Amino acid sequence: MNKIQSCFRLINLLVCAALIFTPLGLSGTAPTVSAQELDSDLVGSPNALLFLLFLTPGDLIKNTEFAEVFYIDPDYKLRWITNEAAAAKHFGSDWNQKIIEINGLNELGFAFGPELKASDELPAYNPYVSLVKTFEDVRPGMLIKNKEFAEIFFVDADMSLRWIVNEQIAVKNFGENWSQIIFEFDDLSASGFTYGSPIDENYISPAELNKIYLQIEEYNYGGESEKALPLAQNLVEMDAEDANNLNYLGWTYVELGRYTEAEPLLLKAAALEPNFRAVHNNLGLLYYSTNRADLAEKAWLKAIEIAPNHARAYVNLSSLYYERGDLNKTIDILTQAIAADPSYPDSYINLSNTYVEVNQPEQAASTYLSGLDHVPVANHAVFFYGLGNSYTDTGDYDNAIKYLNQLFLLNPNHYDGHITYGYVLGKKGDTSGSIEEYKKAAQIDPSRATAHYNLGTVYSYKLNDFAAAIKEYQLVKQIDPIFADTNNLDFYIDYFKSQL
Question: What is the per-residue pLDDT across 372-410, written as a single tens digit (0 to 9) for each?
């Protein structure tokens, strides 16, 4: 292996191992946040899911990862809205502000109805009329009242009734049409429902709570957990007995490295909701981060037991086996992850990287190829880069070039892609093309040393241009002194000077 190959392959593999095999935290099981986070006993029960998600006929919904917007018809079927004209006609010019985004919409068990076109007519209806006949039909999220009295009550998740203190609060939390979805009963006292605290100006509606949850997730997944912290702390201040709130704050503390504060919160959440998959995943992350591998393994296995079709716990568990050096077990658990959820990209990425580790680049390429048909389009650039690397490892340089070119169509400034492309062109005898690719990479990210190192190696070993090689190696020393020392660049610089 020459120095160019040794350099860029070593760096790329180390980066993949460090980044891809980092366990990920999970958001809570708030039903308005993610279908995948729902307790397993509700999965497969569309009506229960719909009520828990506060979704009703007339709502507009979409999967967070796709562009299609659907209308929920009176039969709880999804009708795809064919274009913006149809959306504007049926739902007003602000239709796009009414969309509810769901993570994992496909898991809710909806059936599909016909497409909704601008020429179609929608019936006017009260979405609940056919659903609620007796107290047994009442579900969380409904508004109900006694016919003889003015007070309106919101049915909370625990089926307690919460008095809505005034009309302004009702409009704020339940929309302008709140008065049209009230169920009246002759004698509400006969229901046997208990009463909770009133809904006043301090109340946060499910929709607003959903926004807070999503914001915390965005911050935590984006590496900005310090911004998530006050939001998560406020949730627990409002209700310290809510497992969801405890999970969000515990997860945020884990992301911040504040493990002693995270642990009691997550343990309490697990005690309140023993089948709360996200909590067990985050406990695994906590234990992994505090060098308690056995406890991490148990926590992730518990998360898998609770939700066997959710891939992230498998992927997190694979990071533990990978770190132990048990690559066969890593491959096995990642294969299970793909079978559990073929749309989860990290399963393919980790499995492909593991195949590279065991010197099976053909299997790595095959894994990436199989994932392209299943993962969201937003992840395709990562897969094209992986295919470029895998085919480079197999010596199939034509396919490597094919997929790297597809990568550049999606991301023309992919630093590592240009490094790999430069190497491939060099192997095909195109030295000038190789140099151009390394120069592109150096322009894309001047703070990284790999491109300059590879340029120095090409100039010295391919072209005998020792002056150019010295210049590139000196840049490496400025950018990354540790890398320069590891690769003994002072020795080579002195040698090259002796050849001038």
Answer: 989 988 889 999 999 999 999 999 999 999 999 999 999
Q: How far is CA 124 from CA 58, 60, 98, 183, in A?
A: 10, 16, 18, 17
Secondary structure (DSSP) of 2-68: -HHHHHHHHHHHHHHHHHHTS--------TTTBGGGS-TTTTT-HHHHHHHTT--TT-EEEETTS--
Can you give the three-state secondary structure of 364-421, one letter per residue? HHHHHHHHHCCCCHHHHHHHHHHHHHHHHHHCCHHHHHHHHHHHHHHCCCCHHHHHHH
40: which 2 tokens? 């397993």
Between CA 19 and CA 15 the distance in angstroms is: 6
Coil, strand or helix at 332: helix
CA nearest to 458, candidates 483, 422, 493: 422
- Give strand pairing partners of 143: 154, 182
Residue 407: which of 435, 446, 372, 439 has the closest Cα?
372
H/E segment holding residue 275: none
CA–CA dist 451, 445 (Å, integer): 9
Location of structure tokens 């279908």: 35
Domain boundaries, the chain: 35-112, 135-191
Give me 374's structure tokens.
């299943």
Tell me the chain's radius of gyration from C-alpha atoms: 28
Answering whether pTM is above 0.85, one says no
Helix or strand or coil: residue 154?
strand
CB burial of residue 280 (10 Å; 0-12, 13-18, 19+): buried
Residue 69 CB contacts under 8 Å (≥ 6 apart), including other chains:
60, 61, 62, 80, 81, 87, 99
Give yes or no for a contact between 36 and 49, defined as CB atoms under 8 angstroms apart. no
Burial of 336 (0-12, 13-18, 19+ CB in 10 A): middle
Q: What is the pLDDT of residue 131?
A: 57
User: pLDDT at residue 46 above 80?
Assistant: no
Q: What is the DSSP string of 438-473?
A: HHHHHHH-TT-SHHHHHHHHHHHHTS--HHHHHHHH
Above 50 in pLDDT, residue 45? no
Residue 172 in this model has a pLDDT that exceeds 90: no
Of 304, 334, 377, 340, which is closest to residue 26 (Cα–Cα)? 304
Residue 287 has pLDDT above 90, yes or no: yes
Per-residue pLDDT at 54: 55
**Considering Cα of 166, then 169, then 173, then 174, what sign does the dihedral take?**
positive
User: Do residues 299 and 281 make contact, with C-beta atoms less than 8 angstroms apart?
Assistant: yes
For 86, half-sphere exposure in the C-beta direction (CA atoms, 13 angstrom radius) is 18
Q: What's the one-letter identity of residue 254?
A: V
Average pLDDT, the chain: 83
Q: Which of 40-49, 212-221, 287-296, 325-334 has the lowest mean pLDDT?
A: 40-49
pLDDT tens digits, one per residue of 111-125: 788 888 888 887 654
% of the chain residues with pLDDT over 70: 85
